Amino acid sequence: MLAASFNKKPNKPIQEFIYPYNVGDLLRPTFFCPFDMERIGKLGDGGKWVCGMSRLEAQSHGPSSDANPDATLVVYSFGVEHDSSFEAALLARLNAEIWGFDYSVDGWADEVPPNSRAHFTKAAISATTDRQQSPPKLAVHDIMAANGHDFIHIMKMDIEGSEFEALEAFIAWAEEAGKKVLPVGQLLLELHLVTGDGRPSTVDALVKWSRGWRNLA
Asked: Which residues form the signal peptide (predicted)?
């Protein structure tokens, strides 16, 4: 299949041959989940594996609506780009309310039409908040404070290399606040070998991040 594609379009960059798929589509997650595992959203960069989706549905059945009597599940989606199939599936199957953030696009992709349960902010996720910058930079704990949230049921983070500094700051905030665990039910995290500005992620950044993570375990 790939060979045929290369023969048809020999002058295209490699990203265009594999898009919208990636090597992750061929693999199953290796982390421990005591419940059912299900990939939510399309193949490619938009889909994510969720642990215990059936339990979430039993707790808070969709579709998402202000009139739905089930408990609202808070979802943060950091990194939207051009595929919102993950968020669309959560809105359809759970009574979720989603807050999305991405500095590179102006809103949700076509899968999520205007919806009172899906909020979008054009901003970058960072270690610290700087609202004077354009687009602004926002820290996770500051977003939670602004929204009045003390717990996030699902946090999806795909922010192209900035995840190390953002999570390190989030972990430091949790420790300073005296929290024994991060206030997150599930963290769906995509790791990158480069930082947000294109520089290689340093070993030091990974070590600091993993050390803080272990401290909260």
From this structure: none
Is residue 73 domain-resident?
yes
Check which CATH number belongs to the domain holding 131 and give it: 3.40.50
> How many domains in the chain?
1
Average pLDDT over residues 176-180: 91
Domain of 140, in residue numbers: 34-216
In a domain, 179, yes or no: yes
Residue 61 forms beta bridges with which residues? 94
Residue 27 in any domain: the answer is no
DSSP conformation class of 130: B
Burial of 180 (0-12, 13-18, 19+ CB in 10 A): exposed
Task: For residues 97 and 29, give the distance between their C-alpha atoms in angstroms, rounded to a whole number.
Answer: 26
CA dist 97 → 29, 85, 94, 125, 147 (Å): 26, 15, 9, 19, 12
Counting Cβ atoms within 10 Å, is residue 151 exposed (0-12), middle (13-18) or buried (19+)?
exposed
Measured between alpha carbons, how far is 188 from 185 in angstroms, rounded to an integer?
A: 10
Sign of CA dihedral 198, 83, 53, 173: positive
Closest to 190 measured CA to CA, from 48, 83, 33, 93: 48
Instruction: Locate 68 and state its tokens.
Output: 């739905």
Q: pTM score, two decimals?
A: 0.80
